[in-house]
Write a structure and sequence with these properties.
The protein is of the alpha+beta class. It has a domain at about 90-235: Glutaredoxin (3-Layer(aba) Sandwich), CATH 3.40.30. The chain has 9 helices and 11 strands. It has helices spanning about 5-10, 70-75, 85, 135-145, 145-150, 165-170, 195-200, 235-250, 275-280, and strands at about 25-30, 30-35, 100-105, 105-110, 120-125, 155-160, 185-190, 200-205, 210, 210-215, 220-230. Strands 4-3-7-6-5-10-11 form a 7-stranded mixed beta sheet. The protein has a two-stranded antiparallel sheet with strand order 1-2. It is globular and about 60 Å long. The two termini are about 45 Å apart. The model is unreliable at about 1-85 (pLDDT under 50). It holds the Pfam family 1-cysPrx_C. Its EC number is 1.11.1.24. This is thioredoxin-dependent peroxiredoxin.
Length: about 280
């Protein structure tokens, strides 16, 4: 697997837990008690940090025996729902909402996706695991160009199935050692894997997410989705280009953007006659 967890990388990191004077978790070893200051919501580690995900209704399986079917098949009683009845594409629909813990500016925070509705576009991207190989190249690339997303009124959010403690350790690891260093945007902990599952990027038998990326508009609707396999990194340039195309089409609903379109280039009218102006010009 292209992205395998490097557990030794976590153990070797020096982690500074964000201070939270209002709460402390106590631990004892060999009769000696110590106090570790951590955010109140994390005391005990017994709490689930999972996101609340809006789950889709499952279509009722079609029942009844088919005329002429073998008795053995009827006895098994296998109820199969039509793929057409169950399938609903994410693009063009409201993004599944979630609320989850995240790490930003070396602090533990809460992220609720629906809170961005009416305020910002969102680039939401999933990656397999912390302390891996392709992942830090993508995460730091998005961070280094965060100001370009800011100018487009867009928030960037990263997500993986790791805990916030793993995220924090990775942020506190120097980039030259495979870490992230300071990031300009939050990374979410999907420790229950519910967010990854709701966005259709979870690999069930591995328990990690594919490299999914979603552009969500200010109405909370997914306008773009791309999913790469584990060994293939994503392009910040292409993400920005697609985001600009999404925004242009929304601002100019009577126009569409052709292949490879960039701001300032010619668009076309979605009309059999008017589109000829574009084709005649190329």
């Amino acid at each position: 697997m292209a992205c395998a967890a490097a557990a030794s990388g976590v153990a070797a990191s020096s982690v500074v837990i964000p201070r939270a004077p209002s709460a402390a978790c106590s631990s004892s070893a060999s009769g000696t008690s110590t106090s570790l200051a951590v955010p109140k919501s994390f005391c005990g580690l017994g709490k689930s940090f999972g996101a609340r995900v809006a789950t889709a209704n499952v279509a009722v399986a079609k029942a009844g025996a088919v005329a002429g079917a073998k008795a053995a098949s009827q006895k098994r009683g296998v109820a199969r729902a039509s793929a057409e009845d169950d399938y609903a594409p994410l693009v063009g629909n409201v993004a599944p909402d979630f609320e989850a813990e995240a790490v930003f500016d070396q602090e533990f925070i809460k992220i609720k996706l629906s809170e961005y509705i009416g305020k910002k576009y969102v680039v939401l991207f999933f990656y397999p695991l912390d302390f891996t190989f392709v992942c830090p190249t993508e995460i730091t690339a998005f961070s280094d160009r965060y100001s370009e997303f800011e100018k487009l009124d867009t928030e960037v959010i990263g997500v993986s199935i790791d805990s916030v403690f793993s995220h924090l350790a990775w942020v506190q690891t120097d980039r030259k050692s495979g870490g992230l260093g300071e990031l300009s945007y939050p990374i979410v902990s999907d420790i229950t894997k519910k967010i990854s599952k709701s966005f259709g990027v979870l690999i069930p038998d591995q328990g990690i997410a594919l490299r999914g990326l979603f552009i969500i508009d200010k109405q909370g609707v997914i306008q773009h989705a791309t999913i790469n396999n584990l060994g293939i990194g994503r392009s910040v340039d292409e993400t920005l280009r697609t985001l600009q195309a999404v925004q242009y089409v929304q601002d100019n609903p009577d126009e569409v953007c052709p292949a490879g379109w960039k701001p300032g280039e010619k668009t076309m009218k979605p009309d059999s006659k008017l589109s000829k102006e574009y084709f005649e010009a190329i």
